[in-house]
Every structure is written in structure tokens, then in C-alpha cells.
């Protein structure tokens, strides 16, 4: 017998999610000839984590990839992130065309797209199995005019016209989790699963970019640094451990803050030097004030966790013990992977 949540995912589509999503601005994109620095200034100015990149072809936009902060982190690694100091980092790459970022990570190695008619099952498989956080929605494939059933064609064409305004938009992991939360009464008992059972759950799909030992270590022990560390140390930790973020802990090991690739938005040659500063000082400079990261205990349910992530506009929740020490990290990919079983 098919579970309630599996039935829901199979019978609801990308179009359903986008129809309930508030869209208060046009798609923000950037031309492939723009500089790397311009791209990340764009991310900061618009408070977004990724941006589609296009090239002009016959006066039309031909999208080639979606670039995000993780691509910048990978580029920093290429430019000397393994060195002991940011002083040795070559910042000339910031003035180079954004084309150099395309393919730096799996998510930007190709243009990940979906159609409005995709089921949520198909969409979540794209998100979790390919480590993709945002996907560009394109138009449904046109109906062939030589098909026999004209009435059926007319109905399909009408559906496609209704979906057309949905094309040219991004759909994110957060959009899907928000939609699922709004329809929690249709998902059944899956929302009662405890948080400690799915920390690192999406890592089971990580064989393409992580070896088994590294994936297992990430699942057992979240990556962390102390408050005495520099921001540069956090970047190196993310780079060497293939983690998307690091926990920042005090002398007792208790969670104080977090740093992710998103904190690199707005990076420029002058701000490179800020990476020498203590990590908490760097974060205050980036964020204006130090934000307490979202955390949860083992007894928290999947439903509670989804509610917390959506309410706080977060991208992860740290699983902590009774002393507030991080013992796991639950990402949006982990949450979605649970629905695939």
C-alpha cells in the first residue's frame, strides 16, 4: 500500500508549488560576460544565494548554468585556499568573466531544469540525488501537431498555456519544503519521524562526489571550528571536508554560530583581507549582527524541524545534545531525502 506522503508527491507538481509561491520580482539573472565580483555583489544586493547565467543568442537569453556561493568557494580553493593565509590568494579571478565559475561544482556543471508538469517525486529526486539546490523551470515540451486525438491535444495545449507564466522561474528546496508544510495534513505519519534518524540522510546519494569514508564521517561528526579561529579556517574546513557549512563552537563545544559559503557573497579584493579576522568578527561584518543558528534536539519531529526551517528562513538545523554541542547537521537535502525513503 502506497503511503500518504508518496501519493501526495506523485500527484502534485512543480506547477502546484509555483502557483502558491509569492513572486514579487522578475527572475534575477546575469550575463556570462559579467565579472565574478559582479555576480557575488548581485547575490548580496538581492539577498539571494544563486543566479542563472545566460549568453545572448539571436537577441534571446540562452541560459547555461546556475551559479551559487559554493562555486565561489570552489574557485577560492582553485586560487590557493589550501595555503595558510589569504594573503597568498590571487584575487585577479574576481575581475574575470563568470564563465570561469561554470562547472566548478556539480550543480553548475550543467543547467538543471524541470518542467511545470514534473511531479514532486521527480523534482525531489533532482534535488537530492544531484546535490542541486535550485532548478530553472522551463516550458513543457510542445504538443506534436500530427497526433491523432485533436481534442486531447487542445486540452493539453490549454494546460500548457496556463503553465507558461510559470516558466523562466527558479524553484528551490525551500519552496518545496514550504509547500509540503502548508499541506502537512495530507502527508501522514512521516512528519512524526524523529530528527536524530535523518541527520545526514541525503549523504547516501553522495557517491558521485564523496567517497564512502568521507560521507560516513560527515554523517557522524559535523564539521566545526572554535570561536578563536579565523574565517579563513572555516573556508579551509569546508573545502577539505566537502561540507556546505561549519559549526562555530565555544570552549565547551557549545554551538555559537555557523558559517557557510553564503557568507562569501559580496566578496571583493578589499574584503579578502577580512578573512584574516576572527570568524565571529567576520560574520558580524557580513551579517550586521551575529545570528543564532537554528538547532534542534533528537526528540524533535520532522514536522517541527520543517516548521523551524521555514519560519527562520534557514538552510539547515544543527542537531545538538543536552549541552548544546552539535552532534549532527540536518540540511534541506536531508529533509527532502526522507520523503523519498
From TrEMBL:
Source taxon at top rank: Eukaryota
SUPFAM superfamilies: CBS-domain pair (SSF54631)
Keyword Repeat annotated: yes
Gene3D superfamilies assigned: CBS-domain (3.10.580.10)
UniProt KW keywords: CBS domain, Repeat
CBS domain boundaries: 26-77, 110-181, 292-340
Pfam families noted in UniProt: CBS
PANTHER family documented for this protein: AMP-ACTIVATED PROTEIN KINASE, GAMMA REGULATORY SUBUNIT, CBS DOMAIN-CONTAINING PROTEIN
Official protein name in the record: CBS domain-containing protein
Organism: Linnemannia hyalina
